[in-house]
């Protein structure tokens, strides 16, 4: 064999053909030994261990292509007749060395080249097709991730999913499991690259170094593999191992690749429009409805939600979805483009004026100064002046004699270019006559006047309805004028009775200006002394702006259904991809694809190792028997290795120290999981996780890394067991050629598991089973931790800042009355919109103001649970029996023939200790019957109010109306019922007496941040504990009913509902929730009492919040300021939660791993103590093979003295496996000590059983115990 030691292997040209290892030429003639049978006296034949040489010819050639004319079949040998072929009967130095006595055909250099046959066998996982599939798969995964990343970025995710733990687990477990499987398959590539790299190097050139012959990557740790492969330029191993490491890194990254994100998407839906504004005509009439005013004021004062169909500045068509007429929801709001009705007022101002004529009468009919005058008003934008006659009388002294005018409808028909004149306009003016400085005559102070035209138009608006607070998304510019009747008339029918003005003139402050001032909470005393034109214009426009949307909603909306289209903003969960992790994985996949493609190109020819697999024990024998030069070199390099005979090598992972350390680690890991699970269940999670950042990799990738370490150790144990399985099987029992020609290490897991059962290699069975189970351990543990929203609590203290005190000034004042009227709007139509109560109040509960806590972050989703005293008005009511009151009725006939009915109620109150009762009388004007139903019931209700308790003090105090503005308790007596005109009698009467007083109760209250301040959560209202109710000390002044209720008109004729007095009117629809018939229904007494009490208590609490709240100072309030205990809840707290089910599965797997290792340790201990190993789990791997036993040198060391090669059919390396095994059928092989009979030398090797010339002595340990060291390698003959 020619060597080129002068040229370094690394500098060979790439174009040079791979070096082809020449096999030893096959001799056309070999010597064969066959037994000599001797006939005994009994007539039987016996060989007596005597063998004679036999010449065999025409054996099969080395290869069909090399010796095409000499190949033929050979009959397989059997146990009964074993033919052992030797090249020399007296040879003593090995079966694989060259012969001396056999004639060999003259083989010169040229014939040797002709005898070389190119290698055709490749390792399965290093074949070009396999590498091309892997390269394509890596590239496909990279492209797929690129597409998914682009699609996710442009479509807010990949596709819809569900926000549940199961789906979360799928998208964490799935990618991890897929990459785990991919890594398992690539591990086969890595194994075969490590296993066959020395053979590839041997084929690549003749200058194979000593270290390469002794090289075995399969027993090295990964860092050592990288180091040695790179140093020896074995780039196939280096790059394949690099890909394997990168795939493991991708397994760690995979759990964080996908995440479920909640998004909102828009989808088209059909909507059903419920009404329209197009059908409004100028002939439309208006029913008085004061709820327009009160609802508008409630929205203005308390930010009450608009009713559905009203938005700021306009009213819009209402719409529904589905057959059930459902609205949108917070989770799925609905958006539609509908008609919006807008109202506006355009005005022209007064430019100049003149008095055309004036007549004064000093004292006209005793009424005072009478003035009859005509004023000419000239306005900007109007071509002609307006002539306005006016007359009125004022009492003396004649100072500031004020006159008002309001002319509406068609009386303002002059052409004005400054107005569109598309709707009726109105003239609104004011003037003041003052005395001259010498008091001689009156003069007209510059008057104020405007001409305004309220008009309406329709525009398309885009409205989003979430079922609670519809919002306007867009208003389009296109306008469609709406010809409506006089809008000021509509407003006039939307006001409380006291604010309604007459058609032509207004008296005093009645009119748009007074309505606007009262609307904004001004008392009469705060009205301006001098009115300007700007005031009149602003008030007219303010009324339109503030009342217009509500008036359009209640007056101009017409029921008419029609179809339409809209969109639904639906809250969905989409699978999104993490950009940074995705980019990292894309780069790794591209890198892997590039490396694999490079390997495919670079090692396309080099992976053709030989004619068949040379790495199995049978393949080693074939290769070395046909290439004695390699055997000679290994003998020169290493010699017969003593490691096979007396070595004590044990793979690192199977050493007792490694097992003990790993067992302790696994026990700690399983215990930690159990401890953390208990902590997670008892502490609502393990830790609080921020939403931003990449900290989530700690609970996805870090556990996956630990689990990967456990899985790698079990895989390493399984690797070592499977690697030693064939040798262990050979050392324990006889094997056939098929067993010798296969390696459990080079099998996929399930196939190796099958053969472990077949060979009864229980260590391999258990380790392989655990390796398969631990293959999903990484995927499972990647989903063991999830993030859930779990509110967290922290105790905290608040200090009270305010307290409640009786007003300093309790006299009757108009501004106090204005404050009382401010809350009237809270009574009407409460069900049409949510009420945002003033700070520190909720409904009829009044709370102390607490100091703000700076440490609380308003930007977080925090809430505060607090049990704090709440102040409220409590009622104690009793129904009076019929013997405590008298009720009578009478009627009169009016001039037009209508019958009017009246009632009188007398209630008797008496002190039980006093014999003098007191009687309180109440006259009630029942009104007239309904013209449409003259025989229908007439309903009535009224109130008898006393300042003191009539039950206790009625016998000693005169009955008096409670007009005082200072009382700490109120004792109203309510009476209501129904009168039947047909029976001319009462069909039902109820009389209740109540006591209203201030009490204090403990209320569980939830506070949330609103505009940076803590406020009561309207979605989670306070829950008062009525068992803790106690009188308020010190108590507060309690308002009387005066100005505490809204003035509303119930419709009908003017006298039809006279019998229903003020406080009861807001209880009736449309203002309240009751029908008029409730006053005649005995079953609704509780509803009537509850509604009237609630309205009063609501207004009282809201009023006290304004006038009775005081700050706690050194001079006022309790000292020290009370401290209130509270609990702060972080409702957006993202907690890391450990899943119990996954934990139990993982702990179960770890438990099996622990039991496996403990059993192995116990097995090793029992074996050391001399116990049997028939049932032991641990494979006795100590000294079974030397370190690096897969190297070519180790194989040559083990097999150079074996008789296996002598039983190989000629040209076996060119045969198929089935042919080889067919020829060797019936041969049994063992690993152990053999004695060569010809020279009586002892050899530790793999040999054929039943060969008389090569006698099997036993396994290593048994033979040593039997011989006690008497065997020596040298001959025992001489």
Automatic annotation (TrEMBL):
TM region positions: 129-151, 171-189, 235-258, 583-604, 660-677, 697-714, 761-785, 1142-1166
Alphabetic keyword roster: Membrane, Transmembrane, Transmembrane helix
Keyword Zinc attributed: no
Keyword Cell cycle: no
Renumbered residue ranges of the record's region Disordered: 1-26, 65-87
Composition-biased stretches (Basic residues): 10-26
Compositionally biased region (Polar residues): 67-87
Pfam families, sorted: DUF3433
PANTHER family per the UniProt record, alphabetical: SPRAY, SPRAY-RELATED
Protein name according to UniProt: Uncharacterized protein
Species of origin: Colletotrichum costaricense
């Amino acid at each position: 064999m020619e060597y080129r030691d002068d040229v370094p292997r690394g500098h060979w040209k790439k174009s040079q053909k791979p070096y082809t290892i020449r096999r030893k030429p096959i001799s056309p003639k070999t010597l064969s030994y066959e037994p000599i049978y001797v006939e005994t006296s009994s007539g039987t034949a016996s060989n007596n261990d005597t063998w004679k040489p036999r010449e065999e010819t025409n054996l099969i050639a080395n290869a069909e292509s090399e010796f095409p004319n000499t190949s033929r079949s050979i009959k397989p040998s059997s146990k009964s007749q074993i033919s052992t072929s030797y090249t020399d009967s007296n040879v003593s130095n090995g079966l694989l060395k060259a012969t001396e006595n056999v004639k060999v055909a003259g083989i010169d250099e040229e014939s040797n080249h002709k005898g070389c046959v190119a290698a055709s066998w490749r390792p399965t996982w290093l074949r070009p097709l396999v590498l091309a599939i892997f390269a394509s798969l890596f590239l496909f995964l990279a492209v797929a991730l690129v597409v998914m990343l682009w699609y996710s970025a442009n479509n807010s995710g990949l596709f819809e999913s569900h926000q549940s733990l199961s789906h979360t687990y799928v998208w964490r477990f799935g990618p991890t499991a897929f990459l785990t499987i991919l890594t398992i398959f690539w591990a086969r590539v890595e194994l075969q690259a490590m296993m066959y790299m020395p053979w590839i190097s041997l084929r690549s050139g003749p200058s194979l170094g000593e270290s390469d012959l002794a090289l075995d990557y399969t027993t090295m740790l990964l860092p050592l593999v990288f180091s040695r492969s790179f140093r020896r330029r074995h780039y196939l191993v280096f790059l394949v191992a690099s890909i394997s490491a990168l795939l493991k890194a991708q397994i760690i990254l995979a759990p964080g690749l996908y995440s479920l994100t909640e998004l909102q998407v828009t989808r088209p839906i059909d909507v059903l429009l419920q009404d329209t504004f197009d059908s409004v005509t100028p002939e439309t009439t208006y029913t008085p409805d004061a709820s327009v005013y009160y609802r508008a004021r409630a929205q203005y004062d308390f930010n009450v939600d608009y009713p559905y169909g009203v938005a700021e500045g306009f009213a819009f068509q209402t719409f529904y979805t589905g057959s059930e007429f459902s609205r949108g929801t917070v989770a799925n709001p609905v958006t539609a483009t509908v008609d919006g009705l807008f109202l506006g007022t355009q005005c022209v101002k007064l430019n100049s004026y003149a008095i055309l004529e004036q007549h004064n009468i000093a004292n006209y009919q005793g009424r005072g100064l009478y003035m009859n005058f005509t004023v000419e008003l000239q306005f900007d934008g109007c071509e002609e002046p307006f002539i306005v006659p006016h007359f009125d009388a004022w009492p003396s002294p004649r100072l500031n004699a004020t006159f008002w005018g309001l002319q509406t409808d068609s009386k303002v028909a002059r052409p004005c270019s400054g107005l569109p004149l598309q709707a009726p306009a109105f003239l609104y003016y004011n003037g003041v006559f003052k005395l001259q400085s010498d008091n001689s005559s009156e003069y007209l102070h510059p008057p104020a006047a405007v001409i305004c035209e309220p008009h309406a138009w329709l525009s398309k608006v885009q409205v989003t309805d979430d079922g609670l607070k519809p919002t306007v998304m867009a208003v389009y510019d296109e306008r469609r004028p709406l010809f409506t009747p006089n809008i000021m008339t509509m407003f006039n029918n939307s006001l409380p009775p006291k604010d309604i003005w007459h058609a032509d003139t207004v008296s005093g402050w009645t009119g748009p200006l007074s309505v606007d001032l009262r609307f904004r909470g001004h008392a009469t005393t705060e009205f301006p002394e001098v009115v300007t034109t700007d005031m009149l214009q602003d008030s007219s426009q303010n009324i339109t702006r503030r009342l217009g949307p509500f008036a359009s909603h209640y007056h101009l909306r017409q029921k008419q259904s029609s179809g339409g289209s809209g969109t639904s903003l639906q809250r969905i969960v989409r699978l999104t991809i993490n950009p940074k992790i995705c980019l990292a994985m894309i780069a790794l996949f591209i890198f892997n694809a590039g490396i694999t493609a490079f390997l495919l190109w670079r090692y396309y020819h080099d992976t053709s190792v030989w004619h068949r697999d040379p790495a199995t024990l049978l393949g080693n024998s074939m290769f070395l028997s046909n290439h004695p030069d390699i055997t000679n070199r290994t003998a020169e390099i290493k010699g017969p290795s003593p490691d096979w005979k007396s070595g004590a090598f044990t793979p690192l992972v199977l050493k007792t120290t490694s097992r003990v350390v790993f067992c302790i680690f696994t026990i700690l890991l399983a215990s930690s999981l159990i401890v953390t699970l208990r902590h997670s269940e008892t502490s609502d999670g393990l830790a609080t996780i921020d939403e931003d950042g990449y900290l989530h990799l700690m609970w996805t990738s870090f556990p996956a890394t630990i689990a990967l370490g456990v899985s790698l150790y079990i895989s390493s144990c399984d690797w070592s067991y499977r690697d030693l399985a064939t040798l262990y099987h050979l050392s324990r029992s006889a094997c056939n050629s098929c067993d010798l020609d296969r390696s459990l290490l080079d099998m996929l897991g399930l196939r190796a598991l099958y053969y472990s059962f077949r060979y009864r290699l229980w260590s391999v069975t258990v380790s392989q089973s655990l390796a398969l189970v631990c293959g999903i351990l990484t995927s499972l543990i990647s989903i063991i931790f999830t993030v859930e929203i779990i509110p967290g609590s922290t105790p905290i203290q608040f200090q009270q800042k305010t307290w409640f005190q009786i007003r300093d000034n309790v006299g009757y004042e108009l501004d106090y009355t204005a404050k009382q009227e401010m809350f009237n709007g809270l009574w009407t139509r409460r069900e049409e919109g949510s009420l945002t109560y003033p700070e520190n109040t909720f409904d009829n509960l009044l709370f102390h103001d607490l100091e703000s806590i700076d440490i609380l972050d308003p930007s977080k989703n925090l809430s505060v649970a607090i049990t704090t005293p709440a102040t409220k008005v409590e009622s104690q009511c009793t129904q009076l029996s019929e013997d405590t009151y008298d009720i009578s009725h009478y009627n009169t006939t009016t001039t037009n023939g209508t019958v009017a009915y009246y009632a009188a109620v007398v209630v008797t109150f008496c002190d039980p200790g006093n014999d003098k009762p007191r009687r309180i009388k109440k006259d009630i004007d029942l009104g007239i019957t309904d013209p449409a139903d003259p025989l229908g019931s007439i309903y009535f209700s009224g109130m008898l109010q006393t300042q003191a308790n009539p039950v206790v003090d009625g016998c000693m105090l005169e009955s008096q109306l409670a007009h005082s503005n200072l009382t700490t308790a109120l004792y109203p007596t309510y009476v209501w019922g129904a009168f039947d005109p047909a029976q001319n009698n009462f069909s039902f009467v109820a009389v209740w007496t109540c006591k209203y007083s201030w009490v204090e109760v403990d209320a569980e209250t939830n506070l949330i941040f609103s505009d940076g301040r803590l406020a009561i959560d309207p979605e989670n209202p306070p829950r008062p504990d009525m068992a803790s109710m106690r009188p308020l000390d010190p108590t507060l002044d309690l308002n009387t009913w005066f100005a505490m209720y809204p003035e509303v008109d119930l419709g009908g004729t003017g006298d039809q509902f006279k019998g229903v007095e003020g406080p009861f009117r807001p209880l009736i629809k449309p203002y309240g929730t009751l029908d008029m018939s409730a006053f005649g229904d005995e079953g609704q007494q509780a509803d009537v009492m509850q509604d009237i009490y609630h309205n009063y208590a609501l207004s009282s609490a809201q009023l006290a919040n304004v006038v009775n709240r005081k700050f706690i100072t050194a001079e006022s309030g309790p000292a020290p300021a009370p401290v209130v205990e509270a609990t702060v809840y972080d409702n957006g707290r993202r907690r890391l939660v450990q899943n119990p089910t996954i934990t139990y599965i993982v702990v179960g797997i770890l438990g099996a791993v622990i039991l496996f290792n403990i059993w192995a340790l116990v097995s090793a201990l029992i074996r050391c103590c001399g116990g049997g190993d028939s049932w032991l789990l641990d494979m006795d791997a100590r000294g079974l093979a030397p370190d690096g036993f897969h190297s070519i040198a180790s194989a040559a060391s083990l097999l150079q003295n074996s008789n296996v090669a002598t039983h190989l059919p000629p040209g076996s390396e060119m045969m198929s496996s089935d042919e080889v095994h067919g020829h060797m059928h019936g041969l049994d092989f063992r690993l152990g000590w053999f004695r060569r009979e010809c020279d009586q030398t002892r050899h530790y090797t793999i040999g054929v059983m039943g060969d008389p010339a090569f006698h099997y002595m036993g396994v290593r340990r048994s033979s040593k115990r039997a011989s006690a060291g008497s065997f020596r390698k040298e001959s025992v003959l001489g």
